Amino acid sequence: MTERPTQRHPTEINLHAKSRRLGIRFDDGASFELPCEYLRVFSRAAEVRAMAEPVTGKEAVNILAIEPQGQYGVRIQFDDGHDTGIYSWDSLYRLGQERERNWTEYLARLEAIGYQRREPERGEKRIRLLYFAWLARKLRKESEDLTIPAEVEDVTALLKWLGRRKRGATVLFEPERVRVTVNRQFSEPFTRLHEGDEIGLVPTSPTPPPTPDLI
Length: 215
Fold this sequence. Notes:
The protein is an alpha+beta fold and about 220 residues long. The chain has six helices and eleven strands. The protein folds into two domains: about 10-110, NE0471 N-terminal domain-like, CATH 3.30.2020; about 125-205, Beta-grasp domain (Ubiquitin-like (UB roll)), CATH 3.10.20.30.
């Protein structure tokens, strides 16, 4: 059984496997970042929608493949083996619009059955940082190995943390001043960090910002 002809049409779809998110932009200008876990627990598959209790244990699930289904949507294959969920463009649009409400209700259902949801891979992580151009000169090093605290989970948090490590360093790590690579691929602000990652920090301008001596 297929859904009604779609009223929405995507103009861009990007799977961010590192951060386990699906980015989708529609022809009316709306754009959404949908976590893989969210898409999995709200799968459009009939067997999932018929379940009396919420889907659990999908905190670290990722997407393996996205297959077009005619002109109206996609079938998403997840790495836990679930591959029967077909999402029309309209259903993805609704999931984006209603994400906050849906997620709040989902967490309430988990609480009602006594399930404690756990974020994956918490705790300190050992990473390697590579500095380029004027950033290497300012810091007087081209690389270093660091252990970052548990709360530094993504690229945005890493830049803020690096800016606080030394007095006067905040301006060096402002998001508009550096591009960040994770394992040699340019990242998004929400790209999650993992144990053993290699992080490259590449200045966006050849001219460094004025700063006092770093302490």
